[in-house]
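Recap from last week: sequence in, structure out.
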Amino acid sequence: MAFEKAKAYLKEFGLEDRILVFDTSSATVELAAQAVGCEPARIAKTLSFKMEEGCILVVAAGDARVDNKKYKAQFHTKAKMLAFEEVEELTGHTVGGVCPFGAREGAKVYLDESLRRFETVYPACGSSNSAVRLTLPELEQTSRCEAWVDVCK
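Predicted structure tokens:
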């Protein structure tokens, strides 16, 4: 269901032909990198954080780790990831397929600076066995991000 929603969303931008579907799981950065055939850093992982008013999604490079001090300085709250059981309800996607495409209304998207070293990245596409190949300008446009942030090490 979430995959179909993400696919329809990307079709609005004429990018549905960039979607990759795998016979194996791509639910983790390592598995996605193996499935795509790229270095793990180029997997654009979407991290979901609890906020007072719902959640935010931070898309970061696969090798990036959240820096708690930077996160707190940016968002004025402690970084608290969504619990497993909250993910689908608040993001519209299940764990392993969380992405900014067709996310629930109200889930604000931010892109982390860790992505800027790449021309092309591979975020998930709504399921635990899919990805989509996007340039950074395409990711910026399709994610409808609020801003670029620097919250990772």
